[in-house]
Amino acid sequence: MEFFVIFIVLPIVGVIWFLNLVTFIEKLHKGKNTHNQKVLGSVWTFLFIALLFYCLIWLIG
C-alpha cells in the first residue's frame, strides 16, 4: 500500500498541484479571478504534505 502511495499517488498529486499553479499564474497574469485556484491550491498542498508525511513516517517506522 505504501509503495503505491509513494510511487503513484504522490507524483499524481504533485503533477495536479503543478498544473493548478500554472493555471493560477496564467489567470493572475490575465487579470482574471483566481479564487478557485487559491482554494484548490490549498487543498492540493494539504494533500501533498499529508501524503508526504505519511510516507516519511512509514519509511522511518
Structure description:
With 61 residues, the chain is mainly α. It has one domain. 90% of the residues lie in helices and 0% in strands. The protein has helices spanning 2-30, 35-60. α1 packs antiparallel against α2. The longest helix is centred in the first third of the chain and has 29 residues, at 2-30. It is elongated.
Topology:
Blueprint: H1 2-30, H2 35-60
Which features characterize this protein?
elongated; mainly alpha; single chain; 61 residues
Quaternary organisation: single chain
Bin the strand percentage.
under 5%
What is the chain-wise order of helices and strands? HH
Tally of individual helices: 2
Average pLDDT works out at 94
Work out the number of β strands. 0
Which residue ranges are poorly predicted, with pLDDT under 50 across at least 5 consecutive positions? Answer: none
Structural class: mainly alpha
What is the overall shape?
Answer: elongated
Largest sheet: none
Percent range of helical residues: over 70%
| Span of the ends, CA to CA | 15 Å
Radius of gyration based on Cα positions? 14 Å
What count of structural domains? 1
Short description:
The chain is 90% helix and 0% strand. With 61 residues, the chain is an all-alpha fold. Helix 1 packs antiparallel against helix 2 (35-60).
